[in-house]
Design brief:
The protein is α+β, with helices and mostly antiparallel strands and 225 residues long. It has one domain: 3-Layer(aba) Sandwich (NADH Oxidase). The protein contains eight helices and four strands. It has a four-stranded antiparallel β-sheet. The two termini are 36 Å apart. The protein binds flavin mononucleotide. Residues 31-32, 34, 111, 113, 171-174, 195, 208, 212 line the site of flavin mononucleotide.
Length: 225
């Protein structure tokens, strides 16, 4: 069964160019935030952002994602404490465990990040994004899913863009390793946590590293054949 392609706005070419340029300008103001205020954010905004993520294209339309939206202080605290313990190992603060490679740590140097993650507790929302290896569109737990990471990556992009459009600050956070999030969120073994999207309002005086402002120009990220 087929149906007509959805109607899209009828615009002149210059109106389309203006729309594309406005969309770019709005998205270009997104910056990862690492200091959040504890001001609340209505659940409805998070619901719309997850709905937007759920419209993403996906391999065979299996929609291999699940978003666990957390606002409970107790759960956020548990995530913070567990993530900080992992991060202390990652950054080499915990001498009893293997740390990340020197190359990885020096790549993070310009961002000034460390093992302390207070935002995991202060931000009003943590959205843990899970990738489903299996399940299919009916989430039967056995049907193979395809292009899972690609599909979930696109969905997370739409989630971030919608939260940004709603005027919220976000951070893509990937504690390493992050398998512990599966248990905290009560998700099955067929799912893998890919990232936490932290959402809320930036704390007063929050800053961004200069490094984050360095975006590759169009000439370097595109070729025209
Ligand atoms: C997959 C992925 C994982 C990331 N993990 C972390 C993280 O664990 N901690 C963090 O502070 N930033 C993390 N970031 C944010 C990047 O550092 C940030 O996007 C980059 O420095 C560019 O800055 P911008 O987001 O402000 O443009 C991650 C981003 C992506 C896409």
């Amino acid at each position: 069964m087929e149906r007509p392609y959805p109607a899209l706005p009828i615009l002149t070419e210059s109106e389309r160019i203006a729309q594309a340029s406005h969309a770019f300008e709005r998205l270009a103001t997104r910056r990862s935030c690492r200091a959040f205020a504890d001001a609340p954010v209505p659940r409805e905004i998070i619901e719309y952002a997850i709905r937007a993520a759920g419209t993403a294209p996906s391999g065979a339309n299996h929609q291999p994602w699940h978003f666990a939206a957390i606002s409970s202080l107790e759960t956020k605290r548990t995530i913070r404490h567990t993530a900080e313990a992992e991060e202390r190992r990652f950054y080499g603060d915990d001498m009893t465990a293997a740390k990340a490679s020197d190359e990885w740590l020096s790549a993070l140097d310009p961002l000034g990040t460390d093992a302390s993650k207070p935002f995991l507790e202060t931000a009003p929302w943590l959205i843990v994004c899970f990738a489903q290896r299996k399940g299919g569109i009916d989430e039967d737990g056995t049907t193979q899913n395809y292009y899972v990471n690609e599909s979930v990556g696109i969905a997370c992009g739409l989630l971030l863009a919608t939260l940004h459009e709603a005027g919220l600050a976000t951070l893509t956070h990937t504690p390493s390793p992050m398998g512990f999030l599966r248990e905290i969120c009560g998700r099955p073994d067929t799912e893998k946590p890919l990232m936490i999207i932290v959402a809320g309002h930036a704390a007063k005086g929050a800053t961004v590293p200069d490094h984050a402002m360095r975006k590759k120009p169009l000439e370097r990220i595109a070729s025209w054949l």
